[in-house]
Amino acid sequence: MSKQVTRVDTLFLHQTGDDYLVVARRDGKRVLRGKLELKETNAGPRPLRFLVTRKGEDSPRDPSQFVELARSAARIRISQQTPKDGRDELKEMFDGYQLEALTVRTCRRCAVNGRYSPITDDTAIKAEHEHICRDCAVQELEGELSFAGGLTQAAQERLEELLYETGDLTRITNLLQGELDPDLTKFDTISATTEDVELVETSTLDLHPNLKSMLTERFDTLLPVQSLAIDNGLLDGDDQLVVSATATGKTLVGELAGIDRMLKGDGKMLFLVPLVALANQKHEDFKERYGHLGKVTIRVGASRINDDGNRFDPNADVIVGTYEGIDHALRTGKDLGDIGTVVIDEVHTLKEEERGHRLDGMIARLKHYCEARAKRRESYGGAQWIYLSATVGNPKWLAQNLRANLVEYEDRPVPIERHVTFADGQEKPRIENRLVRQAFDSKSSKGYRGQTIIFTNSRRRCHEVARKMDYNAAAYHAGLDYGQRKRVERQFANQDLAAVVTTAALAAGVDFPASQVIFDTLAMGIEWLSVQEFSQMLGRAGRPDYHDKGVVYLLVEPDASYHNTMEMTEDEVAFKLLKGEMEEVRTVYDQSSAVEETLANIVVAGKKAKALNNRMLGELPTTHAVGKLLEWGFIDGLDPTPLGLAVTRQFLSPREAFAILDGIRKGSSPYEIVADLELDEEGR
Length: 684
Description:
InterPro entries: DEAD/DEAH_box_helicase_dom (IPR011545), Hel308_SKI2-like (IPR050474), Helicase_ATP-bd (IPR014001), Helicase_C-like (IPR001650), P-loop_NTPase (IPR027417). This is DEAD/DEAH box helicase. By secondary structure, this protein is α/β, with parallel strands linked by helices. The chain contains 25 helices and 27 strands. The strands form six sheets. Strands 5-4-3-2-1-6-7 form a seven-stranded mixed beta sheet. A seven-stranded mixed beta sheet has the order 10-18-25-22-19-21-20, sandwiched between helices. Strands 13-14-12-15-16-11-17 form a seven-stranded parallel beta sheet, sandwiched between helices. Helix 13 links the parallel strand 15 and strand 16. The longest helix is centred in the middle third of the chain and has 21 residues. The N and C termini lie far apart (71 Å).
């Protein structure tokens, strides 16, 4: 024995039944495991039997070898989990050999398995009625995670951090059962920040008298972002890119320029947004606010009659429209009159895969329209362009390429708490219900109840979740008609609803003053949210005039995805979004989008289409795109064919155009063709 073990760092003993477990460690590794039985002698307790365990078998050794092993040890430790009689017996034995043995707290589970794991108040983890070491706690947590459905490394690391912080395994495993523990679910707080800006007094503004009187009745000074816009030439006709958080007053920047120029006879205002729901709300707001100063109309999609029954009037003084609605007017040669101001809200849409290239093309075509009209009419000097966004990762680059002055205001009016908890799809409504009740039962210092926006990934799920709320809740999505959407908006504004459950329709900025945002899923349709979309959506939580803070909850389903094309799982996406940096706003073209925009530019600008291609944000391979248009029979020379006109006026991609043509040749009914297109788009 002495030849085999010349030095032992630690000798550890723990009582198991009538025997003592013996573990010897050297250089951090176990070198021996055995069993010791004592006998009572005239000199006190002494070794009776010493067994060394190797490969599951116990080999007897001379008891004196245990004494030799103990004398070689730098430290002798007795487990506190050993009963007091056993501890006293061991200490008496070691005293007889003039050896010092200390009693230490150890992990019982490790001791049972022949491991020596001392624990302290700082490292012990509470597990039901005992304290265990971190390794055993993590091992048990991993077992719970495996049962719940494996989490990604980022999520596991987050739970392990919480385990070490709290020292309570039960609290952490309860999170996996959907229990709400705000101290544990809280991921971080985005602090309220206020940039020091000298505010502009409304009485000093060089505005049309009618607009100025309206403004001074409402405000003594402008908000910071509005004051910065004035300082950067807003009322001098300078183009601007305004980047500032939700609820900081960006919309009024566009209104100040647009309504002022309209009243002074410098052309009408176009206020353009990505979604019909948002266009409807802006239309109602502008009619109420400015209807007595001029005619307000709306243009959405390709329809000549809007869903509120009003006919689009191209001669109106203020036109609220969707990107596609105005682009359709351009593609079909509509006369929009003299345009004095174009406001592009949610300009970060330029980066979206489906819509980005169309917005990029629409901006180029609308600029071409305004410039061509200015050449024909000496009295019309062209349009001022105002671009608005809450989320841009590369604002300087974007402003430079849009040829606009950058107005950037980094401000968060109220702090936002961000929380993460884990739950499966069936469990989420129960948690949401509790959070909605909790918010609605409280009031801010400004006297407003807490109200909630729940974001989910499908219209069907909107209704499913809304039905399960105890308090009044309503689904809100693009599938509702105009009257239904307005009713929900009115009820929320009156605080008659505790929650709305919505898809992407609200993310773009429909004005619901919510204190709380819950992510039922982190997907929209069959795509994961981008950092930009996520930031935009969570920014709906907390309004300075209503709430003291905003609260955001991510309800994450471990190992979940919502379509077989999704490469990541929801827990992986959650921490990517929470820690991610804002994506850059750039428009990227593939062959299909390059062909689609080149065809639209040819339809609108003819031989000047190449110049339009060159002024767009994304790089278009013009020669290649023209070649494909010729090959496919969409153009003849640089003139669109009837087929090309039909394709561009219906916003069809080449793939969709060929699918429709193929269906017609096969004799398929229109319904069959549309169904095939929809199924193909959903990836089925």
